[in-house]
Amino acid sequence: MPEEPPETGRARLGKAASGKVTVVGVQGNDFAWLAREAHEALAGAALVVGGTRLLAAWSSQRSLVDASPGGPGARQIDLTGDLPRAMAEVAEAHRRGESVVVLASGDPGFFGILRALLSTLDRQSIRVVPHVSSVAMAFARLGLPWDDAVVVSAHGRPLEEALGAIRIARKVAVLTSPDTPPEVIGRALKRTGASVDLLAVCSRLGFSDEEVVELGLDDLASGKFDPLSVVVVVGPGGLPIVGWDSKATLAWGLDQGAFRHRAGMVTKAEVRAVILGKLALPTAGVLWDIGAGSGSVGIECARLSPGLTVFAVEKNPEDAQRVVANASSLDAGVHVVEGTAPEALVRLPDPDRVFVGGGGLEVLDEVLARLRPGGRVVASFAALDRATGAAERLGSLVQIGLSRAAPLPDGSWRLSAENPVFIAWGPNLGALDTGQA
Ligand SMILES: C[S@@+](CC[C@H](N)C(=O)[O-])C[C@H]1O[C@@H](n2cnc3c(N)ncnc32)[C@H](O)[C@@H]1O
Predict the structure, then answer these.
(1) Which residues belong to CATH 3.40.1010.10 in the chain?
(2) Is residue 205 in contact with ligand 1, taking CB distance under 6 Å?
């Protein structure tokens, strides 16, 4: 008796076509490029669904690509206009056992129709035959690798969202749209003071009138471009696109007024200056700002060292939103993580630098367990007992007593004391850290 194959619990998915809705990706409008399985699916289709442009292209080319185009009587549904209705009809036709092909642009799983299809069909009922995505094609045309690129879409999404991602990126591809064509991206980039090494608009890829132009920021902002484009931006020398201004002064300890904050929940400028000094920021690596409050420390770190990847962890949702707003208005690349430490730290890459402004010794212990070799931690406290606990773990502690001068009505000056703050730091002790001669 033949042996039963072992029960592996694996589900076989993949290329099997029967009983599935086939989603065919087309780049540009050239059907001659499609894979054989896409042609076969189209030849046997009873229903073909797609946007106006792709349906027209298919109708005009079907005789060129397939000698026996399936379903001379194949129904067509144009999904432009009423996408939910079209998705419901696809699901209904599938249930009736009809062979359905959905035409999509590029890779259907990449900012494409696949997401909408999954609202009415389960993924086991779908077979995707992708083409190259517009972004892959754009980078191919430019002769650039793109495994290190960030892809953002300004297609049907707020421009601010895209800009937030661009700000942190070193290499980015932006999908554009009629509402947000390439020139709008250009103007936004100019406003935020972007610096670029390479800027390109890749339009109508795969069409006969495809155009790929490399240009400067001024020309992008003042030009007029096809909205069916991918804008590729590469920052200077691998540095972030925004926030790296060669004319900027090197200053730290920004005034509290630069940050929106909740009832004084912002590290005082002079205390922050000391914290930044103790952090001894490297030019690259990962920094966590835990208990970020207004985000002032993380934001200053990102501004001073744009090569750092900065995470600001904040448990209060309103404060977290304020960090986003502060980072945006100060052009700082900061990833805001809304959550409570130490749990929220699990998702983050191990740090090279950490500032602990909130959370107790438990957080400090978790930070030390995750700190990368050669890393350092700075923590600030109002309470003496926690500060000494931190000193035992980190090695160094100072207290900063800050008095602000204020004029009196008679023209003389008085000193007004701020609450004392303890700053602990370590674990790498050296001349730099101890402050001893
Ligand atoms: C909804 S997304 C679809 C992306 C598609 N699934 C892909 O893989 O390229 C639409 C955006 O992709 C970009 N795009 C799609 N086709 C393009 C083409 N032929 N040339 C340039 N950009 C294109 C444009 O930015 C367009 O606004």
Answers:
(1) 21-131
(2) yes
Q: pLDDT of 330-381, one tens digit each?
A: 888 899 999 999 999 999 999 999 999 977 899 999 999 999 999 999 999 9
In the reported structure, the alpha carbon of residue 50 is separated from the centroid of ligand 1 by a whole-number distance in angstroms of 14
pTM listed for this prediction: 0.61
CB 75 within 8 A of CB 46: yes
| CATH superfamily label, 135-238 | Tetrapyrrole methylase, C-terminal domain (3.30.950.10)
Query: Ligand 1 in contact with 28 (CB < 6 A)?
Result: yes
pLDDT in tens, 52-83: 999 988 888 766 555 444 545 688 999 998 99
Q: Which CATH class is domain 256-434?
A: alpha beta
179 CA to middle of ligand 1, Å? 14
Ligand 1 pocket, 133 CB below 6 A? yes
Helical spans, DSSP H, in 192-338? 217-222, 269-279, 296-304, 317-329
The CA–CA distances, whole Å, from 4 to 1, 11, 61 equal: 9, 17, 49
Cα 331 to ligand 1 centre (Å): 28
Could you give the residue range(s) of every CATH 3.30.950.10 domain in the chain?
Answer: 135-238
Class of domain 21-131: alpha beta
Counting atoms of ligand 1 from 1, which one is nearest the CA of 132? 8
Cα distance between residue 301 and residue 324, in whole Å: 15
Instruction: Write the residue with the smallest CA distance to atom 26 of ligand 1.
Output: 228
